[in-house]
Amino acid sequence: MIQLSNVDKVYSGGRWALKDINLHIKKGEFIFITGPSGAGKTTILKLIYLGDKASIGEVILFGKNLAKLKKGSIPYLRRNMGIIFQDFKLLLDKSAYDNVAFALRILGFKKGDIRSRVLDTLKLVGLGKKSGEIAGGLSGGEQQRVCIARAVVNEPALILADEPTGNLDEGNANHVMEILRSLNSKGTTVVVATHNRALVERSDGRNIFIDGGKITKECLLREGNVS
Amino acid sequence: MFLKNLSFFFLEALKNIRTNFYLHLTIILIISISFSVLGIILIFETNIENILSSVSEDMTLEVFLKNEIKADSEDFLKLKTFLQSYPLVKKIHYISRSQAYFDFKKNFRQYSNLLEELGDNPFPASFRLALKKGFDNKKELIDLISILSNWKSIEDLSLNKEWVNHFYSFVSLIRMSVWLLIALITAGMILIIYNGIKLTIHSKSPQIEIMKLVGATNWFIRGQFIFEGVLEGLIGASVSLLILFLTYQLLFQKITDAFSFLFPQHSFSFLPVEYIFIIIVSGTIMGLFGAILSASKFLKDIYG
Q: Is the keyword 4Fe-4S assigned to this protein (chain A) (predicted)?
């Protein structure tokens, strides 16, 4: 589903964010990308959701080479992804409901479908009673859950989550991981970038450890299979 | 997809206007003022055009014949046939020497003594040519004057080439000035709308970024800004018409008095219906283009 081959990312001023990344993520996989802050985790996600372009190398997503993708095709590719952002990227002057409904409206869902889907998803993330509240007035943890609801509401084929539990207490963090697990069990591919070691240690799946822009370790969690 | 989301775009545009109310109010006011200035120019253009077209319509060329040319002579008939068949000439009217004498006597009674002192009839016979309407017949008129100037049986003409050249240069100068002003104001208005939408887009860049990341196409995002521009243009143009109409009503008597003093045979009129329609449509189109231009340019800066 996702293939990064010999990918480098160099920012202006010659700062290397990624160096020689080779990564293959299969359909239906649950994968963690871990490492310290500034290691390049978010950059990898950005290359996948076309928020940025690789300087060198090839990124293939859903069988398409992203370097050769026409601009007009980008939105349609993004519709297959749900993205959970570290900084949430919410419309702070709109309600929690509107923030989630907004994504479905763009995708062309019918009004009736939008309502039932949005309310069900907000209930799923524990915000059923706060759907009418303005996002700017919600706590950090609640805003993060609105962001998660928006990412999963259209049941995308791929979920990219950048520090999805960063602002949550342990109980809510576990709940979010359960949601992602449940989506994964239905066939959704999930990529989680996090520096939360505790969260990774109690999870199943594959862990890619990244440091200084390079993949330094890869293992299957709980089995400790380092490659 | 675009049509399906029209109501969404419309509501978002209204929300944008409400959120940045003072910015949009300023843009609408500037558009209204610009269109009012444009409207004033168009009102004057309409009235000047009326005068020029009536001058052109009333334009006659008098062809004075030599005294020895008799009304039934071969030269006379040749000239008459030529004038009747010339494309620029609408109709011709022959005024004999005695007719010219009586006309003068009737129209200028105070000078009748002068005629009696002269004894002989000093007036030549003439053909009065009514010319076809339109400002584009300058070359044809000059050609006709050139031909007639060399005609043996003709003594003189009431118009000469210099006068015709000056008249048509004056008409073109007025028209060019009016259209230059119109072009300048139009360009100014497109810039105002362009920059207004640009400011809105900057203020909404977080929303645009999110829309892009959840899979909105650029046309979907542009939709609300296009509606915004169209609404601004439409409201601005309509308000300007209201300002113009109220000003016209308020100053009508004074303007009419001044105008009738300068041009006694013409009444001062408001914008014709087609110009009102053009102002509303051009306001809308300018809003549309300003929005498309700025939205296209600034959307590129945000996530491809």
A: no
The beta-strand segments (E) located in B151-232 are 154-157
Chain B: give the shortest CA distance to residue A227, in Å: 34
A150 vs B214: CB contact, 8 Å cut-off?
A: yes
Chain B nearest-CA distance from A224, in A, is 35
Decide if pLDDT at B267 tops 80: no
**Partner B, chain A 52-91, Cβ-Cβ below 8 Å:** 71-72, 74-76, 78-79, 81, 83, 85, 89-91
B293 shares its domain with B172? yes
Q: Do the domain assignments include residue B133?
A: yes
Same-domain pairing of B177 and B276:
yes
Of B19, B206, B214, Cβ closest to residue A106? B214
A108 touches chain B (CB under 8 A): yes
What is the per-residue pLDDT for B136? 58
CATH number, domain of B95, equals 3.30.70.3040
How many domains are there within chain B?
Answer: 2
ipTM: 0.86
Give B218-239 pLDDT, tens digit per residue: 888 888 888 888 998 899 999 9
Average pLDDT over residues A181-186: 91
Q: Looking at the structure, do residues B44 and B67 belong to the same domain, yes or no?
A: no
Q: Which helix (H) or strand (E) holds B255?
A: helix B218-262
| pLDDT score, position A225 | 40
Q: Is A226's pLDDT higher than 70?
A: no
For residue B282, the distance in angstroms to the closest alpha carbon of chain A comes to 30
Which range of residues forms the domain containing residue B255?
6-55+168-299
Nearest to A78 among B206, B207, B215 (CB): B215
- Domain identity same for B139 and B172: no
Query: Which pLDDT score is estimated for A141?
Result: 86
CA distance A97 to A135: 9
Helix (H) or strand (E) segment spanning residue B162: helix B161-203
- Minimum distance, in Å, between the CA of residue A196 and any CA atom of chain B: 25
Whether pLDDT at B3 is above 50: yes
Please tell me the distance from the alpha carbon of residue A140 to that of residue B76, in angstroms, as a whole number. Answer: 103
Question: Are the C-beta atoms of A168 and A125 separated by less than 8 Å?
Answer: no
Phi, psi of B207 (to 5 degrees): -65, -40
B217 touches chain A (CB under 8 A): yes
Chain A interface test: which of B18, B214, B222, B303 (most A C-beta within 10 Å):
B214
B207 in contact with A, Cβ within 8 Å = yes
Same domain, residue pair B294 and B173 = yes
Do A59 and A4 meet the contact criterion of CB atoms below 8 Å apart? Answer: yes
- Residues in B closer than 8 angstroms to A49, CB to CB, are 213
B35 falls within a domain: yes
Preferred mutation among A52, A106, A159 to probe B, highest tally of B CBs within 10 A? A106
What's the count of helices (H) and strands (E) in chain B, helices before strands? Answer: 10, 4
Query: Among A153, A208, A156, which residue's Cα sits nearest to residue A18?
Result: A208
Beta bridge partners of A158: A81, A189
Could you tell me if B268 and B207 lie in one domain?
Answer: yes
User: How do residues B159-188 score in pLDDT, each as one tens digit?
Assistant: 877 888 888 888 788 888 888 888 888 888
